[in-house]
Amino acid sequence: QVQLVESGGGSVQAGGSLRLSCAASGDTLDYNSMAWIRQAPGKEREFVAGILWSSGWTEYADSVKGRFTISRDNARNTVYLQMNSLEPEDTAVYHCASKMGGINIKPVAWQYWGQGTQVTVSS
Hints:
mainly beta, globular, 11 strands
């Protein structure tokens, strides 16, 4: 199994930036994908960004393209989400997730989940 712990959330004004971190432990990530998936109150969970651990290949939701960047640090088994030009609509709990195999934009496909970190963007 994989254990995931997120950090880095907080409150910022619109236009600001945050960097989220997700520390992974347990099984090897060599054959896994990692993702950030967010959930706002009253809304469905939404895939934000994903990365193939081995190659670094990334995918993004259209709503965050050009503003968010997902990356990983292999030595630290850590995945990051750099969030720039934040908007109030980005307010949500951001979860780190992991699964075997490739990236899947459906939140239900992800096997392991962290507890989440709150991101609040004020206008």
